[in-house]
Specification:
Layout (H helix, E strand, L loop, with lengths): L5 E12 L2 E12 L3 E6 L5 H8 L7 E6 L2 E2 L5 H8 L2 E4 L11 H12 L7 H11 L15 H12 L6 E5 L7 H18 L2 E5 L3 H7 L2 E5 L6 E5 L1 H7 L3 H21 L1
Parallel strand pairs: 3-8, 3-9, 6-7, 7-8
Antiparallel strand pairs: 1-2, 1-4, 4-5, 9-10
Helix pairs in contact: 3-4, 3-5, 4-5, 6-7, 8-9
């Protein structure tokens, strides 16, 4: 990208549940059009941070600004307008089981937009085609595979043409081939639409394949211990916790290969 403009900024974010501090003094910014990765071990607060960025939870202190608007101090009308600019893929895809794939994708359209009802199926077909699910409008979530559910969740997240797409562990629970296909789809969406994408993941292959920039959260210090290009973090970061994070993932996969041979 030749010209970056900041689209999201987190400033001095502190998260506490009862008396326990979960995240401390979190500050970073995300540029328009980039793929930004939030990494860290289990329990480091990755998904907690994501829930705050999409406004599902209110922090103990600090601010989150989307296009210079503090989402926690905005009035309801402004907040709803911001929500329409965000798409979210939750870890389990969160599809409604009693609704068809087409109905799931149509849901945010019918809730947030006023338009001719005859146009909605056309938009749904376009969004499903974007993720490689042409012809699956009438299928129920129980009738498709895990990878297809992720694709359907992505189609629903893209239904309102969001400026920012939040993805929580998009490759979680998938086999390596399907996970790589989802990574390729995320890259395709980013390159063809210019959508800013913020991803929570601990998957090393996804981190290497997707990340323009990244932050790493630490469970012990409860804050950011590394930031920058994830491939550079992997190769030369001075913090041993960061190096261990990348090395541990690689070593475990090599060990699995040796044990299976």
């Amino acid at each position: 990208m030749s010209q970056h403009k900041e689209c999201l900024r987190v400033e001095n974010l502190v998260v506490e549940y009862k008396t326990e501090r979960v995240l401390n003094d979190i500050s970073f910014s995300v540029n328009r059009g980039e793929i930004f990765i939030i990494i860290g071990g289990s329990g480091s607060g990755k998904s907690t941070l994501l829930r705050h960025m999409i406004g599902l939870e209110i922090p103990f202190s600090g601010t989150i600004r989307i296009k210079d608007t503090d989402i926690f101090n905005a009035n309801e009308n402004i907040y709803m307008s911001i929500l329409k600019k965000m798409g979210v893929l939750f870890q389990n895809s969160a599809l409604i089981g009693s609704m068809t794939i087409g109905e799931n994708v149509a849901l945010p359209i019918t809730e947030h937009l006023t338009m001719n009802k005859e146009l909605i199926p056309v938009i749904v077909r376009m969004k499903l085609a974007m993720v490689g699910l042409e012809g699956f409008e009438q299928y129920l979530p129980s009738e498709i595979s895990g990878g297809m559910k992720k694709r359907a969740g992505l189609a629903r997240a893209m239904a309102l043409n969001p400026e920012i797409l939040f993805l929580d562990e998009p490759s979680s629970g998938l086999d390596p081939v399907t996970a790589a296909e989802i990574d390729a789809l995320i890259l395709h969406i980013n390159k063809t639409t210019g959508t800013t994408i913020i991803i929570v993941t601990h998957d090393l292959d996804s981190i290497n394949a997707l990340g323009d920039s990244a932050i790493m959260l630490d469970k012990i210090t409860k804050t950011i211990i590394a930031r920058g290009n994830p491939r550079e973090m992997k190769e030369s970061h001075e913090n041993p916790k960061v190096r261990r994070f990348f090395k541990r993932t690689a070593v475990s996969r090599q060990s699995d290969f040796r044990n299976s041979s």
